[in-house]
Amino acid sequence: MATTKDGLLYYxxxxxxxxxxxxxxxxxxxxxxxxxxxxARHLPSPPGLPIIGHLHHLLLGSSSFPKKLxxxxxxxxxxxxxxxxxxxxxxVSNANFAKEILKTQELNFVYRPEFGSPExxxxxxxxxxxxxxxxxWRFLKKLCMTRLLSNSTxxxxxxxxxxxxxxxxxxxxxxxxxxEFCDLGAPLMSMMNNVxxxxxxxxxxxxxxxxxxxxxxxxxxxxxxxxxxxxxxxLGHLGKFDLLGYGKxxxxxxxxxxxxxEDIMKKHEENGSDRKGSDLMDIVMETCNDPSAEVKxxxxxxxxxxxxxxxxxxxxxxxxxxWAMGELINHPLVFKKLRQEISSVVGPGRLIEESDVQNLPYxxxxxxxxxxxxxxxxxxxxxxxxxxxxxxxxxxxxxRIILNLYSIMRDPNSWNNPDEFIPDRFMGNTNLNSNKELMxxxxxxxxxxxxxxxxxxCPGASLALANAHATVGALVQCFDWKVKGGEMVDxxxxxxxxxxxxxxxxxxxxPVTQFNPFEES
Length: 521
Ligand code: HEM
Fold this sequence. Notes:
Its cofactor is heme. Keywords: Heme, Iron, Membrane, Metal-binding, Monooxygenase, Oxidoreductase, Transmembrane, Transmembrane helix. This is 3,9-dihydroxypterocarpan 6A-monooxygenase-like. The protein is an alpha+beta fold. The chain has 17 helices and 9 strands. It has helices at 4-33, 55-59, 65-76, 95-104, 135-148, 151-156, 158-177, 185-201, 209-231, 246-270, 272-275, 280-289, 299-330, 332-346, 361-373, 405-408, 461-478; strands spanning 79-84, 87-92, 182-183, 379-383, 388-390, 393-395, 400-404, 479-483, 508-513. The strands form 3 sheets. A 4-stranded mixed sheet has the order 1-2-7-4. A hairpin with a 2-residue loop joins strand 5 (388-390) and strand 6. Helix 7 (158-177) packs antiparallel against helix 8 (185-201), helix 8 packs across helix 9 and helix 13 runs parallel beside helix 17. Protoporphyrin IX containing FE binds at residues 128-129, 141, 196, 308-309, 312-313, 316-317, 320, 376-377, 380, 450-453, 456-460, 463-464.
């Protein structure tokens, strides 16, 4: 007679066999479809902890976020899977894997991940930087490349950049006369904000100082709150509850920006017929009245687009000049050589202009070397659209990719003395990285990607470079620099998570005027 024990054994075995059959039936199609292909391996990972995953590698210790990514890449390899709380990311830290993502499999990785909870973003769905690769994104990218940020539009606005640079120099001459010191970061940020405000929306700081200043404050606030909210992604679904209140702060700041830009748009509409392409907003609004335009932009789309321009362009551009000046002050021989180059090309009595830059290769090399060592955007963020393999490793669709520009541009396999500031490596007359001598900024060399690469490459690169070259040149031509509290500028990066590479300490210095371009000779 069968006992209860036998019965349990019988039904237990039946259950086990059923589970095995269900598992085989579900996995068989996948197995058959991958039959004959080499089996993909899973990505390596550093040691992790339950729940927080690898967060402790990024949160503990006083070094900066890019240095922590760099240390992970150096210890565990150039392709890693990181679990940051609830968010899974793939960290890519060498030129070969970057090329695979940005070129070989570009169409699969042309998307960007969305961080933070969309419910607090009043521009959700209109955002250009995060827009999926499709008609809307293509329309705006083409508008940027062929009209808004094209070389001919940049030439049309050269006087704005000259006037804003002159204002910066006048301020520094005054500081120098009064033997005061200044934090160079603040006037550089105002200058770049004014340039973009005036090019984009004709805000005229001398008539309405308020508008440009309000936009600058909002952009600074949005960068801080947006960064904190994105970091909240590590909470997964809990992020929706806005436990720390950053969601509400973000919404608040966005609504203020929206009201400000709505007023500016109304002024543009009121003076519509007189304006005819006087600024970027006119050009964007013209497309709304063009019946042949492929996409009809809404007011929300236009405002979201300008917010992206400010967020992507202001801090990155001013920070680049700040890092360059830090390196120049800390390398007096490079500083001297640059001043000599400017003097021999520009002459003694006039201020450097943007049109001089093509004849100033050493100035160009200094800006290139600064962007290599201190890339204002430390990472490129991408997302895979479909399952794929990289170097035999399996990546599932919607994998978030962090391209670690900081490590790629300091990789000792690509760069000699990678942590040293050596502008000569870009001059083509040394044997230091001689294959880099013709290196362009266009993202075709995957060892050097300060502006990204491919379809998603930065559309503001020419504007950023025009500004960086002429500003660094003018600051070297007009002033000697003394550092408050010591001989050297503190070149450490700020700790904590941030999208742009900030300096750890304020850049406080004394300008000493050497050449005053506004003085009658
Ligand atoms: C030194 C200054 C700048 C640096 C280092 C920089 C760097 C970058 C990088 C690395 C990307 C991502 C590219 C990729 O994913 O392949 C990017 C995208 C972008 N940048 Fe810049 N940028 C700078 C200035 C500007 C300026 C001045 C503007 C416009 C006023 C701008 C507008 C944008 C926009 C709209 C995108 C998104 C493009 C897209 O998704 O298609 N940037 N930038």
